[in-house]
Give the backbone structure.
Amino acid sequence: MDARARTWLGMPILLALSLVLAACGSSKSSSSPTSSGSGSGGGGNVSLVAYSTPQTAYDAIIKEFNKTSSGNGVKFKESFGASGDQSRAVDSGLAADYVGFSLEPDITRLVKDGKVAGNWDQNATKGMVTNSVVVLTVRKGNPKHITGWSDLTKPGIDVLVPNVFTSGGARWDVMAAYGAQIKQGKTEAEATQYLTDLYKNVSVQDSSARAALQTFTGGKGDVLLGYENDAIFAQQKGEAIDYVVPDQTILIENPVALTSTGVKNTAAKAFYDYVFTDPAQKIFAKNGYRPIVASAASGSGNNFPTPKTLFTIKDFSGWSAVMTKFFDPTKSIMADVERGKGVSTGK
């Protein structure tokens, strides 16, 4: 297990959660009035592009940032959507100073094309701003008695998971499901067959994790594979759901970076620094994320269970190898699984 996993496993993870539902794929401009923080600030404009689920957290963080001397008067243009779609949009020319995605490959895509510096992950957290885990979200009272991965392939179980070719969250879901089989002692062939069997029960594949949550809370499906923070979000909104942390699951690590324009933007650089501070990390914690700053979890009020077996993407040789083996749209494990269901891979 890597250092980031040990960071939150070793701390008292108590989180109180307060979220407001945000539409995925939205774009807006925001600013706050003159701050109460010290100093006059320099103003400026920041284009923030991120995946769908942390929108509410970012809105709250921006408000607090605007109260600081470095954030006073700074205006934001925000865009949220499926992680892969957002990354491709920036790669194709969408203006962005600060990017926050679900998984590392959506950053490295921009590195390859010179839009993000190659040293983006050289800070103390290796570029990661939040953590989470994959959980099984079920109906209130768990009427289908879902206790772990083996239940998801049973006849009659309706499973929801986002589309792996647009959603970073879906890729975490797949690696959690596959990795759980390996950690249970199964062979790679058996773990691959599990994915095929699992997807036979998948009825809806939305474009993003937040869209999948909306479909599930709208009444479709028995189980939703997704982020722990999304399940907490739904509970805090009063939705009739519970969630199960399976015995084997994956540590989700969410990266952020400044783009080539962002590193030249004083306001963007100040905001990037701010998201790693204790006040910003506390906001992420309140919004259901396991913070990478240990002190931010203290006194949050909710207990996050520690999975019996927690693994990371490094257990499968890292994202570069995983993207080729599992998620290449032309020839990969998930391309075969999706084509078997008649689902387009985009190729």
